[in-house]
Amino acid sequence: MMYDWLYQFTGSSILAMFIVSLLPLFVFILPFALFAVLMERKVSAHMQDRLGPMRVGYHGILQTVADIIKLLQKEDIVAAATDKNLFNLAPVLVFIGSYAAFAAIPFSGVFIGSQIELGLIYIVAVTGLVVAGILMAGWASNNKYSLLGAMRAAAQIISYEIPTLLIILTIIMITGTVSLYTLSEMQTAYFWNWLILGGPETGIQKILFIPLMMAGFLIIYISTLAEVNRTPFDIPEAESELVSGYHTEYSGMKFAMFFLAEYANMFAVSAIVSAIFFGGYQSPFGYLGSALNLPWLIPIEQFSWFTAKGLFFIFVQMWLRWTLPRFRVDQLMEFCWKYLIPMAFVILLLVGLITVL
Amino acid sequence: MALKTEEMVLNMGPQHPSTHGVLRLELQLDGEIISDVIPHIGYLHRCFEKHCEAMTYPQVIPYTDRMDYLASMYNEFGYAIAVEKLMNIQVPERVEYIRVIMGELQRIASHLVALGTYGADLGAFTPFLFCFRDRERILHLFEITCGARLLYNYIWIGGLSHDLHPDFIRLTKEFIKEFRPNLKELNELLSYNKIFIDRTAHVGVLPAEAAINYGITGPNLRASGVKWDLRRDDPYSVYHKFDFEIPVGSGEKGKTGDCWDRYFIRVLEMEQSLKIIEQAIDQIPDGDISSAIPKRVKPPEGQVYARVENPRGELGYFIISDGSVNPYRIKVRAPSFVNLAVMGELCKGHMIADVVAILGSIDIVLGEIDR
Amino acid sequence: MKTAEEIFNLLKEKFSGSVTEFKTDKPVEPFIIINPLEIDKVCRFLYENSALTFDSLVNLSGVDDANGEKTKDQSGFDIIKGGTLSVWYHLESIKFRHKLVLKTSTDREKPEVASVSEIWNCANWHEREAFDLYGIIFLNHPDLRRILMPYDWETG
Fold first, then answer.
1. Which residues pair with B80 in a beta bridge?
2. Do C59 and B337 touch (CB under 8 A)?
3. What pTM was computed for the model?
4. ipTM rounded to 2 decimals
5. Interchain CB distance below 8 Å, A331 and B198
């Protein structure tokens, strides 16, 4: 509906499309990535009994701005023996893969980037570009460590897509739709209608779904954690083993793109998980706007709920990173193939049985 | 026709975040499985032993600090004991007690570094900072005593350089009271964490026979099941007056002698050190700390081998004297030098990620390997 | 637990030719002097004998005895010609708690000592260090090359 409104406003479909696609990038994702880097540093610092950045701005708020300015003016060092085309293309692909997922995520009741019916499947498909980008980065760096890191990252991401897909299939079975927008709309009114608590239809089905949905939520949260390469699954960028993994040889703006892509990816998967299980942009208790009879307040509230849920899941991701040690690569694979995938299959079967009966 | 395969040689170091100093490890890999690990050392060789031949005996003490820079008190302790044995000096009891207190505090500080960096190597960044926070308090205790945080020049031949600061005993008691709950916290955060156990149990198993044959000493030997501690089996100073246990590895989470055992022994040893410090503080007598310091250190002709239980193992000093004020030959038997030789054996058949785990569990300091 | 005296008598019976002297005059510990080329046989006996069982080599050090004649070489530097280089062994038995000190001396011009790294793996790196810093050549050592100095370090 944002697109329609803009079309009426500007009278040109191209201009409307342009604005709709650039709006999330500049207004939301880039400022969010700046904020997320700072949040990570402050959260990790307070968990480790220290203070974090304190000097730049009030209690260090402007730290990331200073970092971005520094990265922008750094010399772009490219080693002589690299494959130049792939080397330059890799960060771009990784960033596109992470960012393109935002087209199908509803930010509020009136704003969604694209009205695509295939929402979730589109997202899973487009984040596959990240794997291609990582492999290119590892190969083109002409560095044994980077190659090892890239191969591990590729194996990890591809393996952990399977439990993610299985849980998404389960959701499709329950709700009958793939579009994230419809999914969020379905979970209206109170938190009792959220899919984590069984979904909007009442009845014996809902009660039976609750444990399965909770298990499914855990599985998809863990799998998406592995897809964004966060500890405990951060083997590809394990600093103490491979120096820096597949982005060892990158400097300056290209490194900044990898960095921002990681935080954008983190938010994308948090948003997806909250849209599927926790009602997306819906508020758990009803809207202040409808209580006070101010209909224009509702989209704003929805946007703030969306951001709040996303931030909460990101906080949990950071919490896990600074508490747990790292998995070894074969233990990671074993965990996925021997534990997560069978459990996801079992959940799929059980949900299917319950839906049919 | 068989496919021709080759082993890949991967080089870790000398500059690498987890090699604990300038160590170069040459890994011969078959895919991700290691077939051999060859350590190359010597990047920190400072000709310590030759240097000592040009100095007088007391002038050697700052040099001994700089060998194992994470356990400087113990290096000085060993050297002082060796020269005192050669010259047959009896130090006052107060000096012995203070040396034991400083030594045990140093043992706790050194183990905190070992455990913190071990967790950081494996990806758990938070215990590293918790350990260093506690270590800061110990370094503060050292600072008020002798003015230095890392390299002290405190334990002299025949005595000490300064007596205890008036606040020392009170601050040490406070430290002990606040450290015991932190040890429990460290256990909950790192030692019993399932991911950590998966990374370290059954990895790098060192059987007891091989350990004795390779000359491994210290927590590494005790983790393999051999109950051998120089403080109990070849006592020096006043250790025979204290009541403490010797923790031995038992394969609780995996096999006896694996990385988890070597890690956990150090946690248990910190607890025992706290016990020793408490007893020492209760029993410490009054006295003059500098009454036995000789004006001129000129040992008779002869040779002596004296050893102490460093946090890393058995630190031995073999001193040959020719009757003059300069030592003729000082040979330092550094525990990390001997412990590192077993890397090749331990790493066979494991993966690259395990090399980091095994190296961290052996706990080496390059300063004492290369001298 | 056996004293050094008893061990010396035991060794003298078995290896009368190789075991030369028992020095007790200077502080602190008494030591036994052994022939450099027979040291590995003596050590193997000490390791395998069930009453002695010296299962741990604590220390192995190379020492330059500086007991030759002091002259000057072509560039005018002081050098020593003749005399001996020695290797000191400190052995211990973890089973029986007794200790022993051995010493062997070999000519400076042709410094050859039998290696004991077959018996105790600990000796491997210690012998490499003695070779590196003193030039003592250990016969039958599996991998005798420099350990602390760079591999292509030239002497003199």
1. none
2. no
3. 0.86
4. 0.90
5. yes
